[in-house]
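Format notes (please read before filing issues)

Several people have asked whether sequences and structure tokens are stored in separate files. They are not. Every record keeps both together, in the order shown below: the sequence lines, then the token lines. Line labels are part of the format and must not be stripped during preprocessing.
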Amino acid sequence: MCSNFAVAQRTPLPAPEVEGALTRSQQARRRRVIEAAVELAAEGGYDAVQMRDVAIRGRVAMGTIYRYFTSKDHLLSAAQVEWARALERRVNQVPARGATAADRAVDVLRRATRAMERQPRLTAAFVTAMSSSDPAAADLQRDVAAAVEGTVDRAIGDDPVDDREGIIRVLGYVWQGALVVWLNGRGSLAQVGNELERAARLLLRPLP
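Then the structure lines:
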């Protein structure tokens, strides 16, 4: 007998349902799926997130997962959006500290990297999903970038910054690149934080 997963691989899947169009019970099921994926990734990394295991831990049917997510990378990207938005909320509750735009940007970037250091397997799963060719995952990665950029923008505050938007975007690229280097075993998450601080202080030097 073929497994449900094998059937799902051969059968064209319907487009995933949009989060905003879900009922309360559907939102709750989607939330359980994301939480299950995060738990599995935190325990064993990217390879530990198998859809059958997600279904069991999230107490949903396999077909339910594919109503919301086209792939594992889509699912992990949705989880990363939640992580980035949670970071936004925490920064809003405890504003960035520092006398200059660079100090405040470094403060929030350091907070983010410390959070990643606490869960390295989850971080590795997120970074792996970032390179997915799944269009649905790519769309959510733009949401992740927007949340991170918004966090840095608020940290900079009202200080005059030349090409503010460009600087914030470049900091995002530095962050992504440093994480890929870490994932390939050529550095530590602490070094990711160091690279981000170096970039922030170079890019956000006070205007003459």
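For reference, the curators noted about this record: Residues 15 and 105 are 38 Å apart (CA to CA). The longest helix spans residues 72-93.
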